[in-house]
Amino acid sequence: MNVIDRPLSRTLRDIASLINSGGDLGTTLLHLVKAGCYNTVWSMGGVMSVDEGSGDAVVLARHDPNRLGTLYRDRWTLATSPSLIALTTNEPVIIRDAQVASEFPGYQEEAIERGYHTVVVLPLGCRDMEGRAMVLSVKSRSIVEPSDADLAFLETIAHLGAIAVDRSNRLQAERRAAERLQNVLAAHSALMQKVLSDGSVASAAALVETFMHHPTVVVDLTANLVVTGRSPKPETFDDERWREEVNAGVNRQLLRIAREVAGNTRSEHAKLYLNVCGQHLNLPAMVEPLRVDERMVGALVVFSRGADFGDLDHLLLESAKSALSVQMMRSHLRFQTESKTASELFAEIVSGDWRNPDDLVARARRLDIDMAAPARLIAIGLPRQAGMDDGALEELHRSIARLAAQQGQTATVANLDGIILCRVPGGARDSENTAKLLVRKIIDETQWLLGCKPIVVIGRTCSGLQEHRQIWQECARMIRLGIRFNRTGLLASQDFGPFPLLLSAADTDEVRAFLNVTIGAVSRHDAEHGTGYIPTLAAYLESGCRSQACADAMGLHVTTLRYRLGRIQELFGIEIDTPERRFALELALRLNETLSQDALM
Fold first, then answer.
1. Which of 215, 216, 302, 423 fits a disulfide with 230 by CB distance 3.0 to 4.6 angstroms?
2. Rounded to whole angstroms, how far apart are CA atoms 1 and 20?
3. Domains of the chain (ranges, CATH numbers)
């Protein structure tokens, strides 16, 4: 039978106009289906895409003039649909009477329900925006026998439709590209505005996260700071849990990875092996080094394989890298300025050289420091064997400032001659608990950062210039004692005897002069002649100047002991006949012992 009721040329002209009258893909597909039913016996039709991943054929457009609110199926199992056969053979599939065709049970059920018989399914030769192949189907309410000319007519319609679909896809892709370009330009503008407004690295990183399609992590090596956004593995860790795990220890793994790419000039496309809460994650990522004037300031980690990155994605990535690099350098320079100002202020406070105390208080107030309010001073030093340069000390300085800020403290951190001061505001009880918690974090951070345990002292609560100066001197003295006697960790005054404390408080030259006058000659004689007069004097005083007890302790005959004591008096004129002389001699011996231990360190 003849399917076409009008002249072919006019029909094709009208069909081409109908197909090309659509703009978006949905409208184009709907016009394509209508074209297949235009002036023909085909009363209804549809366009389906084949989703081989899910095993379904999905209806994208449907034309049925008699549809009166009936709910039709929009998804078919490929096993019950002729769509896959048409695509596989690239030939039309004809079902003469779908109501009795048991090989396609899905069509049979719908054919009976909707009242159609003959069905023709043919490949369109194009794909939708998701890359899925499509087929065109037309249906007749009566049984028809399509001729070769009829099938050729349908194939022509399909070919015209494929051209229109491809054009629609290109237009849509161009619109999407234009929109993405606008988004990239807007993102670049917003990032630059954020940097120019002197925001923080964290706020800039949050802005980058909103523009990127993939989860990101920003590593600021100038502050040992890691800012994370969405979870790279949401099926395992949601965003909140991911941020908690990063703060709990994954940040150090990311800092290490960022430092490893410091020598690279190009991004690293690799897999990151992270240990998160006992699970070993293997995450594809791009690690982009961030530099300013060839100086490594951080890294941007994008959890993506990079294969799905187009030109606009790389343009956005470069904008993000540029903005983050500048923001990190600005933050670093701002910290250096603030640190220098705070260090100069506290150096003047602890020196006691106050030409105008009110001016010092006013300068502190401009730094948001209330010198009259109670606070605790924490002193942090490094052991002698650490051998750290100024760069390492500055890195530790920034890390301590970051740790204090993370605890919500308005702490002030300053560098005073190689000892870091951290002033934590608060009353006696509150500041002590806060200081101890902060100290634990500082010790842990220093061990990871510099590979050595620091020396830390928590001072008493203080307020006012004079108390700040006095308590800082006590803290600094304890730090020097820790360095001298190779002690690390949190120190207290009871960790040392009275003589080391006395020695640290006194002027070293004056102490040595006192020792020289008191026992200097005896000490030199022992060194030159191998005698043991200094140990003999120490044992005699320790035994309470009792000859027999001293001789027994030293394993000597009492006569031998008395001979030695006589020789000491004869050679050096040392007398121990009064309490004052005995005290001076015992003090000299203890100080000498302390200095000798110090020399061995």
1. 215
2. 29
3. 8-173 (3.30.450.40), 198-328 (3.30.450.40), 352-496 (3.30.70.270), 505-600 (1.10.10.2840)
Residue carrying the six token digits 């396609």: 104
| Those residues with Cβ within 8 angstroms of residue 94's Cβ, 6 or more apart along the chain or in another chain | 118, 119, 120, 146
Which value, in Å, is the radius of gyration of the alpha carbons in the chain? Answer: 43
Choose among 417, 415, 416, 436: nearest CA to 426: 436
Are residues 36 and 138 in contact, defined by beta-carbon separation less than 8 angstroms? yes
SS3 130: coil
Q: Which residues pair with 413 in a beta bridge?
A: 422
pLDDT band at 601 (very low <50, low <70, confident <90, very high): very low
Block residue for tokens 């593995």: 233
Q: Which of 380, 383, 388 is nearest to 486 (CA)?
A: 383
DSSP characters over 386-436: G---HHHHHHHHHHHHHHHHHTT---EEEEETTEEEEEEES-HHHHHHHHH
Say which residues have a Cβ less than 8 Å from residue 66's Cβ, sequence separation at least 6. 43, 44
pLDDT of amino acid 380: 93
Of 147-156, 221-230, 233-242, 378-387, where does mean pLDDT reach its minimum?
378-387
Q: Which amino acid is at 315?
A: L
- pTM greater than the 0.90 cutoff: no
Strands 489-491 and 455-462: parallel
CA 60 to chain centre: 44
Q: Is the pLDDT of residue 503 over 90?
A: no
314-346 as b/e, with b when 16 or more CB fall inside 10 Å?
Answer: ebbbebbbbbbbbbbbbbbeebeeebeebbebb
Separation of first and last alpha carbons in the chain: 110
Asked if 454 contacts 442 with a C-beta cutoff of 8 angstroms, the reply is yes
To which H or E segment does residue 473 belong? helix 464-484
| Integer angstrom CA distances of residue 116 from 108, 119, 122, 311 | 10, 8, 18, 50
Token pair belonging to 229:
């956004």
- Single out the residue of 46, 115, 118, 96 nearest to residue 76, CA to CA: 46
Instruction: Report the alpha-carbon distance of residue 97 to residue 94 in Å, rounded.
Output: 9
For residue 544, pLDDT over 80 is answered with yes
Pair of tokens at residue 552: 């027994």
Tokens linked to 166: 């491809």
Q: Give CA–CA dist 467/464, Å, rounded.
A: 6
The token pair that represents 203 in the structure block: 């706020």
Give me the phi and psi of 356, to 5 degrees please: -145, 90
Check: CB of residue 67 under 8 Å from CB of residue 73.
Answer: no
pLDDT average, residue stretch 150-155 = 85
List the one residue out of 146, 156, 155, 135 whose CA is nearest residue 83. 135
Torsion of CA 509, 511, 512, 515, to 10 degrees: 160
Distance in angstroms (rounded) separating the CA atoms of residues 475 and 460: 9
DSSP secondary structure letter of residue 4: -
- Paired tokens of 198: 């002197």
Q: From the CB of residue 529, how many other CB atoms can be counted at a distance below 10 Å?
A: 9
Q: Residue 68: its pLDDT value, please? A: 56
DSSP sequence for 404-415: HHHTT---EEEE
**Residue 235 clears pLDDT 80, i.e. is over it:** yes
